[in-house]
Design goal:
By secondary structure, this protein is α+β, with helices and mostly antiparallel strands. 21% of the residues lie in helices and 25% in strands.
């Protein structure tokens, strides 16, 4: 729950200065098990202000159609 709170708090801060997350995913979270600390990294893809889909349907990552892999 503390990790989730750290993520929410970070995004509340980001929103308060006018930015939104464009590419935040599990790879953006590092957890230090020894010290019980959550770190957020790879935050270079946030945008200032509103964001619109400029890519169409060609997003990064795996392509999935109707719950299965695209052919």
């Amino acid at each position: 729950m503390e990790s989730l709170e750290a993520i929410f708090s970070f995004h509340e801060h980001v929103k308060s200065i006018g930015y939104i997350a464009v590419d935040f995913y599990d790879g953006s979270i590092l957890y230090d098990f020894r010290n019980d600390v959550t770190k957020i990294c790879d935050i270079d893809f946030y945008r200032n202000g509103l964001s619109f889909n400029e890519m169409g349907e060609q997003f990064w990552g795996s392509v999935r159609i109707n719950g299965g892999l695209a052919k």
